[in-house]
Amino acid sequence: MTYLGLSALFVALCTPLMLVAVLWRRPSRRWWAATGLTLASLVVLTAVFDSVMIAADLFRFDESRLVGWFVGLAPVEDFAWPVAAVLVVPAVVLLLTRDDREQQ
């Protein structure tokens, strides 16, 4: 299996949780803005720190399993993990947070 296939599988498994949370709780624009800002921040941090770690030769990828697209030195497949985190963590928080409107 390629890194892209593994990444796509992981993101595909995380997506339904986000869909359920969003459809059930109907988050506000503020929630969407915070989630988008979190995603943007994690993508930038991934690009920077993965490139630094790869340049320092802390780890290597099997070149035959990469798509061949890079952001800095980071392969595009590495960006699936922050995307998956932004799908799962806010969805879980949204599902576990009690809605104040339900109290009234």
UniProtKB/TrEMBL annotation:
Source species, domain of life: Bacteria
Report the protein name in the record: Lycopene cyclase
Report how it sits in the membrane: Multi-pass membrane protein
Pathway-wise, it operates in:
Carotenoid biosynthesis
| GO CC terms in record | membrane
Give GO terms for biological process.
carotenoid biosynthetic process
What organism is recorded for this protein? Nocardioides daphniae
Q: Which UniProt keywords apply?
A: Carotenoid biosynthesis, Isomerase, Membrane, Transmembrane, Transmembrane helix
Q: Which GO terms describe its molecular function?
A: intramolecular lyase activity; lycopene beta cyclase activity
- Annotated transmembrane regions: 6-24, 31-59, 79-97
Chief location of this protein?
membrane
User: Where can this protein be found?
Assistant: Membrane
Lineage, uppermost ranks: Bacteria, Bacillati, Actinomycetota, Actinomycetes, Propionibacteriales
